[in-house]
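Hi everyone, sorry if this is the wrong subforum. Our group has a chain we'd like a structural model of before ordering constructs, and none of us has done structure prediction before. Sequence below.
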Amino acid sequence: MGRGRPRKTDPEAVLETSIELFWEKGYEGTSMNDLAAATGMAKPGLYATFGDKETLYAKALRRYAETGGAAVFDDLITSPDPLDVVVRRSLRQLADGTTEKNGPGGCLLVNTLVECAHGSPALEALSHELDAKRLNAFMERSRAAKKAGELPPLADPRRLAEFFSGQVLALAVMGRSGASQRDLERFIDVAMTVLPVRDMSRKA
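Answer:
Right subforum, don't worry. Here is the predicted structure as tokens:
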């Protein structure tokens, strides 16, 4: 499907279209002319409604994190499923998103972490702020799993959280670079070996 042209008075639709364009072309590769053409809003209107390109990108990135990451983080923290099931599901959700044929591929947040690492200090800080929410979700779940006896006494919840948060970044980069769903599944299989094997004979 082609990218729609929202009404000039519909800033929410303009923001969603901007997310898609930034995701597809990257921050540096997207100009205000591109945004005007894609959204149907003239540049003066874009500036008046959203500010400059950096400000619009920041708003798009926050919206992307709120709509794309919140549900995954909530599931990771609150699901009653065993730790290994929840972690694998979160990794698979990302893998599915990165290989989605109808989307740009990869992860907009990961793309920003890479692209803006030596660029705008404000965007770099924002991307790290949002990425920290993923780390915290993994850490909160790992702590709960250790308390529940799913992890051995010497397990370090923070180290596990850092490891799986890193796997998310790796999966996003792999998906963006063209890795197949099968490649990502194999990667996830290896990543999951860091967790203790669950005794399937025991009832949950």
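For your construct planning: The longest helix spans residues 121-147. Residues 69-194 form a domain with the Tetracycline Repressor; domain 2 fold (CATH 1.10.357.10).
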